[in-house]
Write a structure and sequence with these properties.
alpha/beta, two-stranded antiparallel ribbon, 5-stranded mixed sheet
Length: about 180
């Protein structure tokens, strides 16, 4: 009798684990690496709304950051350089300030660091599939078709982004 109960419990756990893994894989595969174009619309510090889809046809680096985040601050000079790139391909950089901060303070911060790329303010709703974030900074590369093709949690560098852009250009051109 005891053997039967243990076997039933073991079988139930196995079934639950299998179902859990299947559901997790379905959810994961639907949000990351899918061929669906991602989009969001957020305000800049002046209140003007910008959508990721405004940049379809271009490579876009989306960087989630905050003014209090030391690794975020370290990568800003590299993101400024990336935004000036024309080789291997021109790149649009969008920084999403992932904090609630006074507009005047954010503008002063942007001016002080001479940030030359578009800064947007985080909204109230999660930006699926970009969020939930696993940490700050987090950087994504979005293809001209609007697909997330690369994710980096933690500080990034100009060299790393250029290398990954070259890799993605090769993959992207082989698909076309």
């Amino acid at each position: 009798m005891e053997y039967g109960i243990r076997k039933t419990l073991k079988d139930s756990r196995s079934a639950f684990t299998g179902i859990f893994l299947c559901v997790t894989l379905m959810l994961y595969s639907g949000s990351v690496g899918s061929n669906q174009a991602v989009d969001f619309t957020l305000p800049d510090p002046d209140g003007q709304m910008h959508s990721l889809s405004d940049f379809r046809g271009e490579w876009v680096v989306v960087n989630f950051w905050a003014t209090w985040c030391s690794p975020c601050l370290k990568e800003i000079p590299d993101l400024i350089e990336i935004s000036k790139l024309s080789d291997p391909v021109p790149v649009v950089v969008i920084g999403i300030d992932f904090e609630e901060i006074e507009t005047a303070r954010l503008k002063k911060f942007i001016e002080g660091l001479k940030i030359n790329y578009l800064i947007l303010r985080i909204g109230e709703s999660p930006l699926i599939p970009f969020e939930p974030l696993k940490g700050l900074p987090t950087t994504f590369i979005v293809s001209p078709g609007g697909e997330i093709v690369y994710t980096k949690v933690g500080a990034t560098t100009k060299d790393l982004l250029i290398s990954e852009l070259k890799n993605q250009l090769e993959v992207y051109s082989n698909r076309s």
